[in-house]
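Re: the request from the purification team.
They wanted to know what the chain is likely to look like in 3D before they choose a buffer screen. I agreed to run a prediction and write the result into the notebook, where they can find it.
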Amino acid sequence: MRRAISAAAAAALVPDGASLLFGGFMGVGTPQRVVDALVERGARGLTVIGNDTARPGVGIGRLIDAGCVTKAIVSHIGTNPVTQRKMIAGEIEVELVPQGTLAERIRAGGAGLGGVLTPTGVGTVVAEGKQVIKLDGRAFLLERPIRADVALLKAHEAAYNFNLTYRLTATNFNPVMALAAGCVIAEPDEIVPVGVIPPDHVRTPGILVHPPGREAALMDATRMDAPPMDAKELIARRVALELRDRSLVNLGIGLPTLVARYVPAGLSVAFQSENGIIGFGAPPPHGMEDPNLTDAGGGFISALPGAVSFDSALNFALIRGGHLDMTVLGGLQVDARGRLANWMVPGKLVPGMGGAMDLVSGARRVIVAMQHSAKGESKIVPELTLPPTSVRPVSLVVTDLAVLEPTPNGLVLRERAPGVAVRDVLAATAAPLLVPDGVPEMQLGAALAD
């Protein structure tokens, strides 16, 4: 007979050298009590597979801090400087996988499939050493399935028969991972009698679970919003004017999240986040935060009436399937052909691609929101010197100096920021620009009333 066990007993089921699937997105939806128990046990040689390495001391990040991990297969490490430092020093191996591809590889592993075909990463470093297959004139990468020895999940409710539910954006990778491991350990918030969870609310059948943690556990999410800056506000207000009524829009982490503050009056826009929610709104008042409701950057959000949360596989099916009207992403460089680089600076900054490769490949419109220069160097360059996010050109680039549109003939200067002259834009831009007569000053969206 199966029974509930302690976190320490759960950690004892994980042998040194094991491969582990970890639910979670920036630590939200990660079984932190089991993580803590693994650290206390002194686990070593682990291969961890999950969306990200969170932050130092949180989720997978705590295992890396403690020296438990030898390899991480993740989509993003940009919020964890310890992971980046250890990777560059050769202390751990990091395999970076586009976020949507990671979800599909895990799903394929759990579904008994031999792999998946995806357009994400074609023409980039992700394609190196992989088979490219052409179907109907379109190139796809063959990505292999992922399975692991153990899956560690964070559930909301577990019934006595171990049926599981998940809550809001803490759902993320958890349901997909439940099928892709030989042993599944779930840490629920609450254990309830059989029958309390309606059959159509069960997300993971209990037959897959062995065994769940004994006690309730809630993540201690920490807000990570960056302080507002004038340049960022200007960019966000201009990007907001690109929003269209009844559109589905993804906002990347960092600066792009500010766009939600400046939606033009009268527009109905549904914002989507890579961690699995459509219909989120502004952060709640202090003290009203829900630890299971965050954006892709880990910042607290609110769920608007009609909002829906779902797992990572469905989330990226929406993105890759062409159902997303627009995405707004940050950038490290954009070149004269409109190609974006936004996921690593070799040898220095290696945040990982996260969902960016899927978004650039799948969204109908791609808008880059970034500052024009960094440390005195233009981020608008003739050719990318950083690894590209996609070979597909972006739709528009909005900076604190200008609005630029990539065209087959080159980058066109469409607008200039208030108080900025055309000559100022040209002086700050390394790439050649096409300058029409009478470049107008950019208009800015107004802030919503508090």
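For the purification team: Residues 211-229 have pLDDT under 50 and may be disordered.
Please add any questions underneath this entry.
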